[in-house]
């Protein structure tokens, strides 16, 4: 019974992801309107046949923006997460394995990264970038920033994880069998860090989708008029924080639900790496 | 409706609101409102921020008051004044029988004491700023107890209006002695400020009842505007000034009688191109930005009505010149904002040597026309306006990229590095007189933002503006000054160094329980006539 | 002290942990070829520490080892790591204290056995046959289905047997077993003890049997050494320890035992 349920959930997740990917990739054909087109006579309109999810402040079709936004967010949030987790694995692994000095140096670097005034640094980054960054380039820069900023917190987790593995009995047992360190790293340590890394990866993806939106407040992030899921979420966020009755504009939740289901589906589809 | 008609309507509405309430104002009651920031100083001569200026307005007595409704100067502590020696000598006759809140009599000595403090470089009062440029300075001498002579080294146009900012202080040195309707009774930093009635205030109403009607005014520090509005709806506050369009619309739905759109304020939003030779712009871009035809074409392509309707939900008024229609005397009514016609803009661009190739506008050298617009990130209205302008200009083949950034970085770019193409910002005006805008229009001025602090005017039209501004500053006749400044406004509309977009409307909320409320666009909006505001008895309050 | 010929292992070591002081003080222990020696001592007395010192696996950053450990005539303490590595698992095998945790959870049993084989014999050999033989020796199935299992699919007793099978894969001269029975139920304990006895008989493997359980040591070992305060305070043949304990600590150990039967005659 349980197996069947799991299999059913997995099938559903695959189907959802497939629909999502196809509709994002085919957004150009599927979307009823170009994502940047402003229907100026109908800003802030509720859902209708013409605008399935209504329009935003500038009269842009929210449904079209959701489809187009998926291209950016679905592709780039995972890439940024991959970059962040790769950095985290490298730094965290080295910190756990290296001598006391290396460990001290790397944990210091991690702590520093976590405590740095990123706001100011990002402002500096914005200042250093040219002003007329084209939207596609801004996308690349955004996710590079996210990836490079996002490594520190996972690095800590990875470090404790790897340290735990290194002091585990099975590593000691492997040494008792006469295995070399390289072999132990490859065969015993790395495979066992996978759940840690995967958990970090999956938790980073939605965080990055959101963080991208918040970078917009610093003038970074995906620039207008290109849509991203993050900018759609920001709409919901400002509605929630404004103290208005949120259910009156229930359709603003659509992007959040899509993101939630996308992340859940990804988790269901790649279960072995997350469980255990 | 024309702008003038709209202003007239707003004024009429304001009066209409007063009329039914004018029945029998009864003294007593406390008015409660929120301030968004702590007043930086309670010394009236140091007030430079909005809350401090509000406290100054409510507690200070001045020689001459600008009537916020009629925008005319009115006698206050000076019953009469006259100018002589081509405006270099001013004589004020003081009101008699006026006493400070501490009971001491007000006399010419106090006036001269106040001016001495204003001009004291150690005090560095913001009120002294307009006088600093006066060669030979100013001197005050009492003429008996009830008159003073003020002499200036050279004439200063519109000098009387500056007196609205100078609250008289007691020569006895008692800093708490005031001449306005209220005195500061309690100040809890971070919490609230309590003003109570000045029982020695000199004004009486038509029936001989001593003003102010209110016992006190309680100002609570409340940074979050959502909370402020919520408290207003709960009846914990009697008025809200300077509302945001979104909050205003929400209030309008729930309490239509309380929310009032007063029409355009003095505050403008504008876009300008960087013309400073100090910036690292490539030659072809500088050529566009310094071309009057290019700037005007951009101005003509922008659909200002859409900005007002979509971004400000209709609570803004399209504009093209530096003066808002709200400025009754100085507004140049001959200037009409362009409707936003891409054909007109393209025709002008074609005359200036630009051509549309497919969807891309190119200059004579074949460079595609594209530029970036910086604005302060987090300001939703500006970000939205920029996105609308981006689309409008895409229609004439100009690719605009948006670069919102934090405010300090933006200021750094527009004042130091000049590393930007175009900037979208707003200006807040409190001074109706063009004298308050000298630093903007003079080519040597620091706020001549498109190309500040020039040694010599870079263009013919800037030279002409310089001449006109200097001429009106030296001209005692107000009508002649107006002619000169009308011409300045016309040049600005034609040359579009600042592309004026909209004037934000003044949006306020006043509780129906507040009698005599007649909000105006000039600060302090609903509180301009604080001495005549009163709390209605519950039966009097009608929820229309 | 001179009869080196009859010795497989002779250890005289002191171990200090950083920040804790001496755990072993000039401890002296011998194991003859084919001999089963019990090492008894209460929890925390340093039994595991000694075992790790013998394997050369104490973290040099945290523990200082002094003295000499002679194994087949070579001093292990001065042996280069590379050579020591070729001894580990091949000539000296070690079964760690907690069985299940000693298996890599992410690796199949077969892969772990294969790895244990190939590390000393290289690829190409018939690891399956060898591993199968070892599994058979510990009474485990040798079929492919078992090879494909993950550690989480094993019981503690099975895991302990897999570890012992892995340890005897290369027929080591010395097998150190650190409390191999303490986590097991009584029946499984008895089976494991039998297993050690069988392996000792079949391969002539010497066993250092670490335990705090005197009776099971007594049933298995030729000799029992009692560890107390970092020293071996008494070494004697198994029955003798019970009958005539000499050191007061040994006496206390024996008195603390639950008495299931009348004291041995
Ligand atoms: N890495 C270490 N650093 C510091 N002290 C340690 C370390 N490992 C063990 N110790 C201490 O050394 C002493 C001996 O530990 P050891 O594990 O050798 O005892 P044991 O006799 O094996 O105990 P048990 O029967 O519980 O397994 C203990 O007091 C322990 O706290
Ligand atoms: Mg132990």
Would you write up a description of this structure?
The complex is a heterotrimer of chains A (276), B (544) and C (265). Chain A is mainly α and 276 residues long. Helix content of chain A is 72%, strand content 0%. Chain A contains twelve helices and no strands. The radius of gyration of chain A is 22 Å and the shape is globular. In chain A, 43% of the residues are buried. By secondary structure, chain B is of the alpha+beta class. Chain B has 15 helices and 21 strands. Chain B has helices at 3-21, 50-59, 108-119, 129-132, 225-233, 245-254, 283-289, 292-301, 304-311, 342-351, 380-394, 407-417, 438-441, 460-474, 478-495, and strands at residues 30-35, 64-66, 73-75, 78-84, 89-94, 138-142, 147-152, 182-188, 192-197, 216-221, 239-240, 259-273, 316-318, 355-357, 360-362, 370-376, 399-405, 422-427, 498-510, 514-515, 534-535. In chain B, the strands form six sheets. In chain B, strands 11, 12, 13, 16, 17, 18 and 19 form a seven-stranded mixed beta sheet that branches. Chain B has a four-stranded mixed beta sheet with strand order 1-10-9-8, with helices on one face. In chain B, strands 4-5-7-6 form a four-stranded antiparallel beta sheet, with helices on one face. In chain B, strand 16 (370-376), helix 11 and strand 17 (399-405) form a beta-alpha-beta unit. The radius of gyration of chain B is 25 Å and the shape is globular. Chain C is built from ten helices and ten strands. The mean pLDDT of chain C is 87. Chain C has 265 residues and is α/β, with parallel strands linked by helices. In chain C, strands 6-7-8-3-9-10 form a six-stranded mixed beta sheet, sandwiched between helices. A four-stranded antiparallel beta sheet of chain C has the order 2-1-4-5, covered by helices on one side. Chains in contact: A-B, A-C. Chains A and B meet through helix 5 of A and helix 9, strand 16, helix 11, strand 17 and helix 12 of B. Magnesium ion (MG) binds next to helix 1 of chain C.
């Amino acid at each position: 019974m349980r197996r069947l349920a799991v299999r059913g959930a997995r099938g559903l997740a695959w189907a959802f992801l497939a629909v999502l990917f196809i509709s994002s990739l085919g957004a150009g054909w599927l979307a009823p309107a170009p994502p940047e087109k402003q229907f100026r006579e109908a800003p802030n309109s509720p859902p209708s046949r013409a605008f399935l999810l209504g329009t935003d402040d500038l009269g842009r079709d929210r449904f079209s923006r959701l489809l187009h936004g998926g291209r950016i967010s679905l592709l780039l949030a995972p890439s940024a997460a991959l970059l962040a987790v790769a950095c985290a694995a490298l730094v965290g692994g080295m910190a756990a394995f290296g001598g006391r000095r290396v460990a001290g140096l790397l944990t210091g670097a991690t702590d520093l990264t976590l405590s740095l005034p990123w706001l100011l640094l990002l402002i500096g980054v914005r200042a250093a970038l040219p002003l007329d960054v084209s939207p596609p380039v801004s996308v690349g820069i955004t996710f590079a920033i996210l990836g490079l900023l996002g490594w520190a917190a996972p690095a800590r987790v990875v470090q404790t994880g790897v340290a735990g593995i290194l002091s585990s009995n099975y590593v000691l047992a492997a040494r008792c069998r006469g295995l070399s360190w390289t072999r132990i790293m490859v065969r015993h340590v790395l495979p066992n860090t996978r759940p840690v890394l995967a958990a970090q990866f999956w938790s980073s993806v939605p965080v990055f989708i959101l963080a991208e939106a918040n970078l917009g407040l610093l003038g970074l992030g995906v620039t207008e008029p290109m849509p991203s899921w993050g900018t759609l979420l920001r709409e919901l966020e400002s509605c929630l924080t404004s103290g208005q009755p949120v259910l009156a504009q229930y359709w603003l939740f659509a992007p959040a639900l899509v993101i939630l289901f996308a992340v859940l589906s990804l988790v269901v589809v790649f279960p072995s790496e997350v469980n255990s | 409706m024309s702008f003038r008609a709209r202003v007239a309507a707003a004024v009429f509405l304001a009066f209409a609101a007063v009329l039914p309430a004018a029945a029998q104002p009864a003294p007593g009651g406390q008015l409660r409102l929120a301030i968004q920031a702590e007043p930086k100083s309670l010394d009236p001569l140091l007030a430079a921020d909005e809350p401090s200026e509000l406290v100054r307005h409510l507690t200070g007595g001045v020689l001459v008051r600008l009537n916020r409704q009629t925008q005319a100067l009115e006698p206050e502590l000076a019953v009469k004044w006259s100018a002589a020696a081509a405006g270099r000598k001013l004589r004020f006759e003081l009101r008699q029988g006026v006493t400070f809140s501490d009971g001491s009599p007000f006399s010419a000595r106090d006036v001269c004491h106040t001016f001495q403090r204003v001009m004291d470089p150690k005090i560095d009062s913001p009120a002294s700023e307009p006088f600093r440029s006066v060669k030979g300075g100013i001197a005050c001498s009492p003429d008996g107890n009830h008159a003073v002579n003020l002499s200036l080294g050279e004439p200063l146009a519109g000098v009387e209006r500056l007196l609205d900012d100078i609250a008289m202080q007691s020569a006895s040195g008692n800093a708490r002695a005031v001449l306005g309707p209220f005195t500061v009774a309690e100040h809890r930093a971070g919490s609230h400020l309590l003003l109570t009635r000045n029982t020695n205030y000199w004004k009486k109403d038509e029936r001989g009842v001593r003003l102010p009607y209110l016992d006190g005014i309680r100002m609570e520090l409340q940074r979050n505007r959502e909370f402020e509005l919520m408290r207003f709806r709960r009846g914990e506050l009697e008025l809200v000034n300077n509302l945001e369009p979104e909050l205003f619309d929400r209030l309008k739905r729930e309490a239509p009688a309380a929310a009032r759109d007063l029409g355009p304020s003095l505050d403008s939003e504008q876009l300008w191109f960087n013309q400073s030779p100090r910036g690292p712009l490539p030659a072809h871009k500088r050529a566009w930005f310094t071309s009057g035809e290019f700037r005007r074409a951009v101005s003509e392509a922008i659909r200002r009505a859409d900005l007002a309707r979509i971004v400000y939900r209709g609570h803004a008024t399209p504009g093209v010149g530096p003066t808002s229609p709200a400025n009754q005397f100085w507004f140049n009514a001959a200037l009409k904002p362009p409707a936003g016609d891409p054909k007109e803009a393209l025709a002008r661009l074609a005359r200036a040597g630009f051509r549309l190739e497919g969807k891309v506008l190119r200059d004579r050298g074949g460079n595609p026309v594209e530029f970036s617009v910086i604005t302060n990130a987090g300001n939703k209205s500006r970000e939205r306006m920029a996105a609308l302008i981006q689309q409008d200009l895409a229609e004439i083949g100009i690719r605009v990229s948006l670069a919102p950034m934090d405010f300090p970085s933006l200021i750094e770019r527009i004042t130091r590095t000049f590393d930007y193409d175009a900037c979208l910002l707003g200006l807040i005006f409190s001074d109706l007189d063009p004298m308050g805008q000298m630093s903007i229009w003079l080519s040597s001025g620091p706020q001549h933002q498109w190309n500040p602090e020039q040694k010599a005017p870079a263009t013919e039209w800037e030279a002409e503006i310089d001449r006109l501004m200097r001429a009106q500053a030296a001209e005692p006749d107000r009508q002649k000054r107006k002619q000169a400044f009308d011409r300045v406004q016309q040049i600005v509309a034609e040359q579009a160094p600042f592309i004026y977009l909209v004037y934000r409307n003044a949006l306020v909320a006043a509780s129906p329980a507040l009698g005599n409320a007649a909000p105006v666009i000039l600060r302090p909006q609903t509180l301009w006539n604080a001495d005549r505001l009163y709390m209605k008895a519950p039966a009097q309050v009608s929820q229309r | 002290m001179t009869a080196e010929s009859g010795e497989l292992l002779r250890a005289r070591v002191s171990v200090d942990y950083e920040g804790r002081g001496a755990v072993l003080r000039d401890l002296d222990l011998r194991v003859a070829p084919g001999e089963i020696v019990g090492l008894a001592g209460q929890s925390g007395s340093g039994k595991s520490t000694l075992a790790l010192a013998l394997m050369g696996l104490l973290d040099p950053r945290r523990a200082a080892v002094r003295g000499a450990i002679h194994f087949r005539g070579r001093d292990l303490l001065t042996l280069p790591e590379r050579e020591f590595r070729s001894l580990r698992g091949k000539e000296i095998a070690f079964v760690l204290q907690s069985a299940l945790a000693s298996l890599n959870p992410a690796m199949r049993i077969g892969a772990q056995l294969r790895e244990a084989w190939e590390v000393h014999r290289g690829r190409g050999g018939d690891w399956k046959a060898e591993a199968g033989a070892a599994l058979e020796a510990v009474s485990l199935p040798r079929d492919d289905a078992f090879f494909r299992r993950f550690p989480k699919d094993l019981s503690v007793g099975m895991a302990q047997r897999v570890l012992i099978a892995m340890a005897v894969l290369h027929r080591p001269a010395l097998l150190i077993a650190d409390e191999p029975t303490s986590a097991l139920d009584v029946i499984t304990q008895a089976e494991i003890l039998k297993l050690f006895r069988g392996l000792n008989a079949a391969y002539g493997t010497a066993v250092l049997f670490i335990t705090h359980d005197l009776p099971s040591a007594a049933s298995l070992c030729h000799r029992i050494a009692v560890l107390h305060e970092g020293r071996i305070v008494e070494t004697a043949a198994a029955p003798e320890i019970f009958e005539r304990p000499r050191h007061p600590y040994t006496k206390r150990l024996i008195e603390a035992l639950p008495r299931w039967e009348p004291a041995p005659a």
